Fold this sequence. Notes:
Chain B: Keywords: Coiled coil, Oxidoreductase, Pyruvate, Thiamine pyrophosphate. The complex is a heterodimer of chains A (363) and B (437). By secondary structure, chain A is an alpha/beta fold. Chain A has 15 helices and 14 strands.
Amino acid sequence: MLGIIRQRAASKVSHASSLEQGIRTLRAFSSSAKQMTVRDALNSALDEEMSADPKVFVMGEEVGEYQGAYKITKGLLDKYGPERVIDTPITEAGFAGIGVGAAYYGLRPVIEFMTFNFSMQAIDHIINSAAKSNYMSAGQISVPIVFRGPNGAAAGVGAQHSQCYAAWYASCPGLKVLAPYSSEDARGLLKAAIRDPDPVVFLENELLYGESFPVSAEVLDSSFCLPIGKAKIEREGKDVTITAFSKMVGYALQAAEILAKEGISAEVINLRSIRPLDRSTINTSVRKTNRLVTLEEGFPQHGVGAEICATVVEDSFEYLDAPVERISGADVPMPYAANLERMAVPQVEDIVRAAKRACYRSS
Amino acid sequence: MACSATPKIVHGPLPTNSLRSAEKSDSSCKFMGPSSFFGSKSLNKKLFSVNKAVSSVGHRSAAVVAVSSDVVKEKKLKSSSSLSNLLITREEGLVLYEDMILGRAFEDMCAQMYYRGKMFGFVHLYNGQEAVSTGFIKLLKKEDCVVSTYRDHVHALSKGVPARQVMSELFGKTTGCCRGQGGSMHMFSKEHNVLGGFAFIGEGIPVATGAAFTSKYKREVFKEDCDEVTLAFFGDGTCNNGQFFECLNMAALWKLPIVFVVENNLWAIGMSHLRSTSDPEIWKKGPAFGMPGVHVDGMDVLKVREVAKEAVGRARRGEGPTLVECETYRFRGHSLADPDELRDPAEKAHYATRDPIAALKKYILENNLASEADLKAIEKKIDEELEEAVEFAEESPVPARSQLLENVFADPKGFGIGPDGRYRCEDPKFTEGTAQV
């Protein structure tokens, strides 16, 4: 496989970070999958892309000397210097715009928002100067930029720090919106996003940063990339389809385990890419199982689930045996109290209940 | 009017002589009184540069930047003497004249076409402000970059985009510079490095700062010999917007090769600059961020050009950004839909007497740089060019229906699929970079 050849060639001349060297050594000794946190996955992806292409640079608040607000950009300042890892003042509109201007001129910026809630200060640049420019200039000016950062609810951070922006950005033509779940997703999608010639909004999740996932040798290879616009079937099933993205994939998998004990075989789809949405995978799955539960963390109205429901009704109406169940966060700004917060975000029990309703087995 | 430790605001006009001597001493700082600001006849030729106070910030040294207008004034007074005293040569004069005539005639033609129904939507005309565009943009190279607002037709023309392409774009035809997809407010040209054309005020400023950032990045990371400069044009209303201040800060902080050009025409749509701004002297906002702030008479193309030379030169040498406030005026309304009732006719009449084209014509004729016939020939040539541009635009086809879905993404097939039909990321050549991984 090409990946392995490249790895062998690279290892002779590599002055890679200690992380990569550690991976290579481990790979030599272990035949089974290694564990990697999402944080390390993102860090290694950024590291490799910056190493391969000098046009890639990282810009954001606290990405340099503080090693990243969530330590995603740890070690990059030492490795690449302050010209390529740039600490900015607290000016989202300003530095997002600067990133877009640099992208117009051929560089490949990776703009970090401390959380996507702060991207609202810069949303004019994400939508109006990044997403729309290729169209407005009739193809003359493309914007190979990546806007990344944590999205969605964390733990107890209150209403202004907890909103999920997947639906907002995914409704805009000209943007690509990605939401990884596992380390494999994180690595592959971030690399694909950085190499992509279009603006990409990369929605991570703060609570997933510390979670470990098994990664195969192929994932650790420096040329590993995932295609944009293709969903992954995390778990095959035949009774009900559950679509999810980001942290909710984990919850869906847990719910699927519980459902399996009750005799319901759930198919879990990890969307990975919100725009473009992998409508064919979703529809194929619904045509197989005939029931659909859409799962997301964000607000219900005009959300990702609404779009999936519409697309399934348009394309696979005759195949549906039950109405589509839509699970989303509560239609309120995120409360602070822990018990209220738990009620405002979908939990595994909610998913199980909804799947049972879809299967007409609710008690 | 030198000051020592703390800057003092001087109210009232400064006489020209003391200005010149004061300018020579680096440690002095001088401020212009407010009375000379709004185009009063006797004082409208003043031009000042402002140093950041050296004593208050230890390590940051101030740079005296702009050529003061007394140099210009002196040359004007001695206009009857030899050619070497003049600010422009004959060729430069004709180039400037032609560019301004092109801008004016184009905008007039736009108005005609709009009222005849060939153009639609928002059209913002630049009549009266040509001196700023011509004065700055004619000093640039092709690789230098211009970022503008919705009042961008003339910036695109000055930078070199052919008139016929701009006219077709306005007509919404497929031969326009953006194939009809951008429109009046979104003039992009990769070839001529016109990065738009932004409808939101202040939106272009961070983008321009990013383009300047790229010049610096190319120098520092790619180690190229890059001295490309970016000009950001925007209006007085924009100077109250947050993005403006954010970019002044970052441009000065990182010493980016950019010139912020404020086209202060005193009016947002119907909102006078004086009614909306706590301190109407925009040039003062530059030193607050550590860059020189310059005020220049934007109705005089020669003065603008002198200031521009200094500012662009500063940026090219790597000394950082400059904020240039050009006091100018738009003869027409904010857009063609604006009835323009709020502006005082006396004010309009006053500025009409300061028409930049008339002023340049007078200068050229008085200094015998060209004859009346030469100038008439230029005007005729521009008229013909515009007639041809309108014809071209009229005869061009409208965009094909298939063009609706094109160019949403740079990816030709979208979604990470390369031209050979396979996913881009699977292509082995895709990861070939210049560094070893």
